[in-house]
Amino acid sequence: MEMDFERCYRAVDSRDQRFDGWFYTGVTSTGIYCRPSCPATTPKRQNVRFFPSAAAAQGAGLRACRRCRPDAAPGSPQWDVRADVVGRAMRLIADGVVDRDGIPGLAARLGYTERHLHRMLRAEMGAGPLALARAQRAQTARVLIETTGLGMAEIAFAAGFGSVRQFNDTVREVYAIAPSELRAARGRHQAPVGAGTITLRLAYRPPLHARALLDFLSVRALPGVEEVRDGTYRRGLRLPHGAGEVALTPADGHVAATLRLADLRDLAPAVARCRRLLDLDADPVAIDATLAADPALAPAVAAEPGIRVPRAVDGFELAVRAIVGQQVSVTSARTTLTRLLAARDRVDHEVGGSDGDRTPGQPHDQRGLRGFPSAEEVLGVPDEGFGMPVGRRETVRALARAVADGELDLASGGDREETVQRLLALPGIGPWTAGYLAMRAFGDPDVLLPTDLAVRRGAAALGLPDTAKTLDAYAERWRPWRSYATIRLWRAA
């Protein structure tokens, strides 16, 4: 979004929630910055500055508004859409790469020098990578202060700060209040939770068709990894510092999230992955407006506004699912994957590994949910544990070897085009599998799967061309949101 003053000011004057996260409003007369939809009186034009990021506003000496809480706004949808270096950098920063590996690690992941990366981010975001990561640490600290009973020193290091003094200074600077006062002010809202458990709200831009998301995830849920029950999606997570579990319940204006983390340093990456899974940073109004311009899709858009693309918390997991799902039904793929999980559990037990909170033979329950196997774990499964044709089994193993050896980066911050080309070079992976991963694992909003049988059936049900070639040509009018059209065609089928 271009920082056009008149356009931004009109959004602020109308308190338009659609622009929350796109930009931030700095009010020089009060020294605060807000989200565009802040309910406070619209400031005078001469007292307003607009910033592309919270970090840029903080760098200008402004503190976060305590009324609208701009740090809790949905993320900018452009970071999901954009595949360039800045977009990739923002996704990696949200996933905590700077906290884990520093600026050198971020630059190495992106293939640029630190100096050039800083220059690019400053030009577009108004702040360098360190300032952007610092703003995220401040938000993580606020969540921990308000939702847990941890001591301040524990919170400081869990949020990624190098020292308690740095933590105190940053919180005072960003929120204009001491950490202890921040806890006292919000303490009455703390939920009674256990150690390592955090509850928070994940904001989104309305509308959100929650049922479509839960329906999609439910039919593909793998026992012991995930489940959908009573309107809540639960799953296990593999995170940088340890295991985790999350329960996500869509509500009016937000998704309620309860996270159980083995290491609280994983809060920021866990939140980023959950937001990505449910596509919470999308701009559904813009997407639906484009798709509704097609008379064939207009009734479906009107009946079900806010359809999102269910994405992934783990790129490797989705890649294995895509390979196993080649030319078979969803039910058949789920059965095969369940066998693979059972084989992983047997291997873990035989070598003395742990299985979360379960003992062998104990049924999976909410406490026993585990993350999907890692590439190394999949490589350790014997032939009989795969339960699939030899060619497909070797494709899964080739994928796992490439990921384990660092030759293939399936994280959200990877280079989409390069990753797709590397996937296509693996035996047994074709355009459908690569496209499916681009859509769900890499967040590409403009992917159509014209050879997919369910897509073609959905197209026929809506009176659209239903051969791969004719549908592909017809779908040009849906750019740049063909991934969302694909989800709607699946639902129509």
Structure description:
The protein has 493 residues and is of the alpha+beta class. Helix content is 48%, strand content 10%. The chain contains 23 helices and nine strands. It has helices at residues 5-13, 54-59, 78-81, 85-94, 97-110, 114-125, 129-147, 152-158, 164-175, 179-186, 210-219, 267-278, 284-292, 298-303, 315-324, 330-350, 375-379, 390-404, 416-424, 431-440, 453-461, 468-474, 482-492, and strands at 24-27, 32-34, 48-51, 63-64, 197-203, 226-229, 232-239, 242-251, 254-261. The protein has a five-stranded antiparallel β-sheet. Strands 3-1-2-4 form a four-stranded mixed β-sheet. It starts with a helix and ends with a helix. Mean pLDDT is 91; it is low at 354-367.
Beta-strand content: 5-15%
Which outline best applies?
globular
Strand order of the largest sheet: 5-9-8-7-6
Number of helices: 23
Short structural summary:
The protein has 493 residues and is an alpha+beta fold. Helices cover 48% and strands 10% of the residues.
Annotation keywords:
alpha+beta; 493 residues; globular; five-stranded antiparallel beta sheet; four-stranded mixed beta sheet; 9 strands; 23 helices; single chain
Topology overview:
Elements: H1 5-13, E1 24-27, E2 32-34, E3 48-51, H2 54-59, E4 63-64, H3 78-81, H4 85-94, H5 97-110, H6 114-125, H7 129-147, H8 152-158, H9 164-175, H10 179-186, E5 197-203, H11 210-219, E6 226-229, E7 232-239, E8 242-251, E9 254-261, H12 267-278, H13 284-292, H14 298-303, H15 315-324, H16 330-350, H17 375-379, H18 390-404, H19 416-424, H20 431-440, H21 453-461, H22 468-474, H23 482-492
Parallel strand pairs: 2-4
Antiparallel strand pairs: 1-2, 1-3, 5-9, 6-7, 7-8, 8-9
Helix pairs in contact: 4-5, 4-7, 7-9, 8-9, 15-18, 15-20, 19-20, 21-23
